[in-house]
Amino acid sequence: MEAVLFLEKIAKDLGLEYQKVEVAPDRVVTILTWRGTDPRLRSLVLNSHTDVVPVFKEHWNHDPFEAFKDAQGNIFARGAQDMKCVGIQYVEAIRRLKAEGKSFPRTIHLTFVPDEEVGGHKGMELFVKRPEFQALRAGFALDEGLASPTETFTVFYSERSPWWLCVTSSGNPGHGSRFIENTAAEKLHKVVTSVLKFREQENQRLQSNPNLTLGAVTTVNLTILNGGVAFNVVPATMSASFDFRVAPDVDLKAFEEQIQGWCQEAGEGVTYEFHQKWTEPRITATDDSNPWWAEFSRVCREMNLSVKPEIFPAATDSRYLRAAGVPALGFSPMNHTPVLLHDHNEFLNEAVFLRGIDIYAHLLPALASLPALPNEC
């Protein structure tokens, strides 16, 4: 809750409207609002999340919550890239624009959501279904992207669907000294083999086509194996858990049928269940049919920013916004920066951070001044 108090202070400092929405017990969405001059127009939503993943301090060179800056200007902190940098860049760009006496036709909402790092199920997923979200009248959203090691910034217009799948295999138990037939392990092995064969096919497809990026193919990793009680007891059940990230152009019905086929081919007593299954992938247009993209890319060209549209390889809260009918781009203005989100010694250079504020200070006026669209007149 310290983050919520911090954001309340920022709202008072900047003269922004402030709202808290508890979407689940102890899960608060904080909204800071800069009112536009034309209430007929749809708003611009700038989203970020307040939670971070855990740290293992023994692997860090500096205290991960100290925000230590070294002699090269690198700021080491958990969330330095993911994505406390972006949330503060939004705030500082607005601070600069308000200090310059600027105002814009469209309202700008800054939303700070909890729970993104564990799927957003007690955060954005609930928030988009509430009347407080509808009251924002969102027309377009910016959310997090990724760092880029090169000069080019990546901009994400869609993302893969997370499918977290647990396969359970049942078979004959018995003494570990015997050749037990039709065991849970044998059947589970068949499923694992089928899944890893598919994994290799997708990897080869990615490696053989230089036009593809990671987000354009489906990945899967075996992440958990469970089963057994003793060395000398053949278990009656075993399970394997998989993290699938399904590309947005995949036929999801056909893909689940493929999973069913792998389980059926392994034999009787093999079942599966989903612990997470996103089935509403959406794509935000990145051509002139989308006036928001046209304006975003125009500003980037004017600032001589090289941008590359891609499909986000993991999952963010953008998927909930897109599914709610709000076009969204994932964009974190961090180039010449190694990708270190969730890693030990996560850092962002102060020069890159400050340039990000400059970028938003140009983007926000353009997006918040986008002329009325046909559905707004």
CATH superfamily of the largest domain: Zn peptidases
Helix and strand run: HEEEEEHEHHEEEEHEEEHEHEHEEH
- Range of strand content: 25-35%
Largest beta sheet, briefly? Answer: 6 strands, mixed
The name of the CATH architecture of the largest domain is 3-Layer(aba) Sandwich
Radius of gyration: 24 Å
- Described by the principal axes of the CA atoms, the overall outline is elongated
Strand order of the largest sheet: 1-2-6-3-7-16
Instruction: Estimate the mean pLDDT confidence.
Output: 97
Count of the domains: 2
Number of strands: 17
| CATH topology term of the largest domain | Aminopeptidase
Structure classification: alpha/beta
Separate helix tally: 9
Q: CATH top level of the largest domain?
A: Alpha Beta
Which stretches of 5+ consecutive residues score pLDDT under 50? none
How would you describe this structure to a colleague?
This protein has 377 residues and is α/β, with parallel strands linked by helices. It folds into 2 domains: 254 residues, Zn peptidases (Aminopeptidase, 3-Layer(aba) Sandwich); 117 residues, Alpha-Beta Plaits. It is 30% helix and 27% strand. It has 9 helices and 17 strands. The strands form 5 sheets. Strands 1-2-6-3-7-16 form a 6-stranded mixed β-sheet. Helix 2 packs across helix 9, helix 5 packs antiparallel against helix 6 and helix 7 packs across helix 9. The longest helix has 25 residues. It is elongated and about 80 Å long. It starts with a helix and ends in a 9-residue tail after the last helix. The relative contact order is 0.20. Belongs to the peptidase M20A family. InterPro entries: Aminoacylase-1_M20A, ArgE/DapE_CS, Bact_exopeptidase_dim_dom, N-acyl_aa_amidohydrolase, Peptidase_M20, Peptidase_M20_dimer. Its EC number is 3.5.1.14. Pfam families: M20_dimer (PF07687), Peptidase_M20 (PF01546). One of its GO terms (biological process) is amino acid metabolic process.
